[in-house]
Amino acid sequence: MIRSALMNVMTAAAIKAGRGLKRDFGEVGALQVSVKGPGDFVSAADRRAEKTLFEELSKARPGYGFIMEESGRVEGADKTHTWIIDPLDGTTNFLHGLPVFAISVALEREGQLVAGLIYNPADDEMYVAERGQGAWLNNRRLRVASRRDLAESLVATGIPPLGRAKEHPRFKQDLSAVMAHVGNVRRAGAAALDLAYVAAGRYDAFWERGLHSWDIAAGIVLVREAGGFVTDLAGGSDMLARGSILAGNETMVKRLGDLLQGA
Ligand code: IPD
Questions:
Q1: What is the pLDDT of residues 90-144, one digit of tens each?
Q2: Is 61 helix (H, G, I), strand (E, B) or coil?
Q3: Which of 65, 89, 141, 211 allows an S-S link to 76, with CB 3.0 to 4.6 Å?
Q4: C-alpha pair distances (Å), 193 with each of 104, 149, 154
């Protein structure tokens, strides 16, 4: 477990925001059957969690900047530190009552991602990583899977929703290229958790296009600290700006990168 002052601040903020999300998740089931559906309720839950994270982190580290899914960028007096936050990754899962969602918080210092936290309050899994301190799930140190044989591998991805249908042809090309070689493919619906599961060795790799910095910033720190590799889908390291990502052990990233670039 990482017991740094920074990680204490991050976990305390996530636990507080997570308590609210868990309570709201309990209400969502009842709203499925209402005519209006749970849409507005879930957006409100999302905003409440973001507000808690913003308030707690601002109190503990005054002056740091923020990039948040709901409120966008908030400049801080301290230009060297920025929190990158998704208060509810896996919103669609949450909306449908599926307990696969998470709070994602990363800290960028002088342009480098130095800490990441991904917390699913529904199953109480808390993933944390800090540069040079390893990646952890609760009290267990994490390592990426060591599998090198693509045919044995379980690989995760994300599918662009109907609202982004113009990205479907590209996704289908990527999927055909990958599914011809890997054991099988999963789509769980929360990119932050997909990356946490790569760090934990549950998935051998994860790739997705069309993401935002807040979906992946914390997960990048986790995978790297678990001994894994992360690239964008052009083979570079511009994941946050490009919004594309491939993560896994070195061999997986090399082989899948070749398949996806050739797709
Ligand atoms: C989404 C999830 C999903 C991914 C989408 C993201 P959100 O984030 O991470 O798995 O496929 O591209 O937008 O909207 O639930 O925070």
A1: 999 999 999 999 999 999 999 999 999 999 999 999 999 999 999 999 999 999 9
A2: coil
A3: 65
A4: 9, 23, 15
Do the domains 150-262 and 5-141 match in fold?
Answer: no
Per-residue CA distances from 71 to 24, 35, 39, 56 (Å): 20, 28, 18, 16
Q: Which residues contact 215 (CB under 8 A, 6 or more apart)?
A: 86, 89, 104, 191, 192
pTM over 0.70: yes
Considering only CA atoms, which residue is closest to atom 12 of ligand 1?
211
Identify the CATH number of the domain defined by range 5-141: 3.30.540.10
| 90 alpha carbon – ligand 1 mean position (Å) | 5
Annotated domain spans of the chain: 5-141, 150-262
- Which CATH number is associated with domain 150-262? 3.40.190.80
- 89 Cα nearest atom in ligand 1: 16
What are the pLDDT digits (tens) for 190-229? 999 999 999 999 999 999 999 999 999 999 999 999 999 9
Using a 6 Å CB cutoff, which residues line ligand 1? 69, 86, 89-91, 158, 189-191, 208, 210-211, 215
| Nearest protein CA to atom 15 of ligand 1, as residue | 90
Residue 33: pLDDT band by 50, 70, 90 thresholds? low
Q: How far is the CA of 208 from the centre of ligand 1 (A)?
A: 10
